């Protein structure tokens, strides 16, 4: 009799625990939004790095290296990408062998700093 009672209690507990198993599960969250395209003047993959692009015909005087840090508004050429751009107040740069180099985006600085000679041979 004791065994039957224990079995009935176990069955009741098991049945009570299974009641929630048939409940509908909440829907999974929607997939993350696709990355937005770069805004005009913003480098792809580098959000927030905005440089006014320079017309390549007008960029003939864009320099690669400077004797001093170039001022905002100066035409420059990125030593990594070769892209001409206008230096902004937040433009990143490096000094190599006494020359100042500036980049079209923050992603170019570590590439240049790791192997400047690779990019200066271009």
3D structure, described in words:
- By secondary structure, the protein is of the alpha+beta class.
- About 10% of the residues have low confidence.
- The protein has a domain of 63 residues.
- A hairpin with a 2-residue loop joins β3 and β4.
- The protein has three helices and four strands; from the N terminus they run αββββαα.
- The radius of gyration is 31 Å and the shape is rod-shaped.
- Helices cover 24% and strands 11% of the residues.
- The strands form two sheets. A two-stranded antiparallel sheet has the order 1-2. A two-stranded antiparallel sheet has the order 3-4.
Spell out the blueprint of helices and strands.
Elements: H1 2-18, E1 75-77, E2 84-86, E3 93-96, E4 99-102, H2 108-114, H3 116-120
Antiparallel strand pairs: 1-2, 3-4
